[in-house]
Amino acid sequence: MKNVNDQGWGTMSKSAWKRAGVVLTAAAVVTGLAGCQDDGGGGGKKKAAAPAPAAPRTQTLGEATKVIRAAYTKTAGAKSAKVRMSMSVTGLGAESGTAEMTGVQGWNPAVMDITMKGSLFTAGDPEAPEQTRMIVLGDVTYLDMGTEKAAERDGKRWMKLDMKAAAEASDDPTAKHRMTGGLGNMNQDPAQQLALLLDSPDLKHVGAEKINGMETQHYKGTLSFEQMLKANKTSEVLPEKEYDALIAAVKLAGLKGYDTEVWVDEDGYPARMDVDMNMGIGSMELRADYSDYGAATTVKAPPAEDTFDLLGMLEELEGLEGLEGLEGLEEPTEG
Description:
Lipoprotein; lipoprotein; LolA/LolB/LppX
């Protein structure tokens, strides 16, 4: 019987699997500090008898809703942007840490090509590269596992995971939700995040702020987990039994809702988005800064010869383990 490790698959360390899981969750799966107000200075002589500046005006709910709706329309039409993300997970012991992600992304269709680094990906794994790259094309995610891991798999450094196929193969409703257009995807798509903010019962305008050198208007709102699922039509995707199990699992984890903030620039695009999730035992903060909306985005899959399929690998291992379980059984004797 050929040993699993002979194929190189079984040599992946526990920490490497953890790193892959964290990265894929980040794919599947954006609290705000007040920006500095622009003082409008600029040198030169002051004008005599200059009138006092008007006090900043807070927009009404109707005005705020109009701005967010217009930003959604513009963002959905742009279909792409450059993105810089930061993520912080606290209160979860060894699973806590920080991460930074930079690159490009597109939506409708969903594509992403980003480079990631941080303790969330490297903690506990001395073999982990300083940074790693992730490519997303629709339902398929590719993760660069690094040179050393590639040596264990005949040079195949890219791990492929078809999220839709993985969801169909999973018996876990929580995992299935994450992998079928769940919260992670919504947080990564600025247009969808704006649409969700419109459903917030407490959407409000915070005020004018300067973000990354740009004048912006700051808005915030909160969504319950049930509202988030409804907006994402999760109840239509999952069978009733699995949907109820998902709700129960989330309540058990202590997740009550999402605090969402967005800063809309003078061109009507979101310059920054924050999502803060408190899960009772821990929390996650995700910030995304966007720029260059509408820029051409070309994202390609890695060469097939450099890629191995994670689901196929797991099915192969499961089959080998099943065969190994037959060892030791005696051959039937003739009566």
